[in-house]
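Supplementary Data S3. Sequence and structure tokens for construct A.
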Amino acid sequence: MQKLATTELANLLEKDALRFAEPMSLHTSFQIGGPADIYTLPSSQAELMQILKFCYTHAIPWMIVGRGSNLLVSDKGIRGMVIATDLYNKISIDENYVSAFCGASLEDLCNFCMVNGVAGLEFASGIPGSVGGAVFMNAGAYGGEIKDVLYCSKALNPTLEGLNAANPILHIKYDEHQFGYRHSSFQDNGFIHLSSVFKLSYDDKDHIAQRMQDLHEERWCKQPMELPSGGSIFKRPPGHFTGKLIDDCGMRGYQLGGARISDKHCGFIVNAGGATAADVMALIKHAQDEVKRRYDVDLQTEIRKVGDW
């Protein structure tokens, strides 16, 4: 497969944008994950479509990843092709409408909005993910969610029929996103998010910057930003706060292998040093079991488990 990919994709991608046996620990905020067989970094829609067609032609499994902030990759890695969106990251503005490609980081998007004096995305300024991942998950924090500011999106149907269509780009209206708590229609329909437009409001740059700074300081005070993690591990169960449930079970600071329940926020699991995906999964199960035993509450994971398990 490596020889095949080298031959057919070498002319399409820059040398460093085609890698083999690439450690996914380098591309996840957990700093955990075994090697991807093939790792590609398309920088345009055309390159993305060519990579997908290559995968279909040669029956190679594939998956799209953003900034890896909500992923737990198996210690065995990922078989087939990983398509990373990091280089597909253009951001532009037209009046108070900001367009961002899927690979743009939320940090870059929020800073762009601040510089251009448009407000509404401040809540996302500390979320360590990509625009594509944020739309996919309807990311949110501090009372704001992506659904509150999103206007529309563009997507790609990655089936052969979709890739070979006369006009392969799908225009997704707001209602078609079917947003819910940490949910969008992208989780159900299999479409690849390409870009989104956000409808924002004008505001003074200094006011926007101050709100971003205030949330940044609050996040660093309350969340374990100093250690690798996958963000909030569990969805919030109705009527409860996940961190409090886990804390009340006496699990603050509890550690299995290199994975530890954060001392700062019990809704986070951190990589305390040398953690494996197996360590994290064992700790997740232990927390779920304890909360179920003591409070009869089922904790559902927010983090996505991917790779060869």
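Construct B, processed identically:
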Amino acid sequence: MELGKVGIWWSGTWSGADGAHGAAAAEMESLGYGALWCSGGFDLGFPSRFGRLLDATEHIPVASGILSIWHANPAQAAHGAAALEAAHPGRFLLGLGASHAPVVEQLGTEYALPYTRMVHYLDELDVHGPAVARDRRVLAALGPRMLTLAAERAAGAHPYFVPVEHVARARGLIGPGPLLAPELAVVLEVDPAVARATAREYTAGYLRLPNYANNLRSLGFDDDDLEGRGSDRLVDAVVAWGDTTTIAERVRSFHDAGADHVCVQVVTDRSQGFPLEAYRELGAALLGG
């Protein structure tokens, strides 16, 4: 599946993409973005949002970033992906993740042995046909074991909330073949104080999740960096901010470090809906438009 060099990661409402016309998704496709990544959310089962994005577009791939293996069982994931394959052949990429203890425990479920659970999940998917075969799935991987599993049992890895140092480390670990498609949060703002304040609305929640915090510690960030909503050093490492030229340079640094595809997530006030204008501006810098 060809994802191109740059895609869009967005978990909020697609400003029409969940309705009849899907204007935002269709425009992102027309601008030349390579893929649309959408969170699986927190409802149980296989979400309908992926199908709505596919219905709204013509050829662009849609990827789940991610579908939690605690919120949808293997049969649900396989049946959902098979239905999308029948309606939109070759366009859905199943992104799977082990989620986080605080999220899973809200289901009343013990967060135990997430790596082992992922292995068993993939074992079950292997009997469900080509729509969820190895080349049609990626894993949300941070640590060495999950990254290795992503290289061995999936098309590759989709790391989230990572600096460029993690991209380089991941590429070194998985080797040159597997897909490496990290997410990169961006803020279109040149004023440092305003940009970092906006970025901290994004970092605040993720720094409370042990998987992300421990991954950042492994890259040299300490407790002072991780406290509250993050130090300036940490915020600047995981969120690209500035004008479109500066953000394009950061995206390029991810590619130079080994990323095949970078999923750009504009950080903004989600109550305003999909940040259409920001993605238009970025498109000109990132896609050569």
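The chain has one domain: 6-286. The two ends are 23 Å apart (CA to CA).
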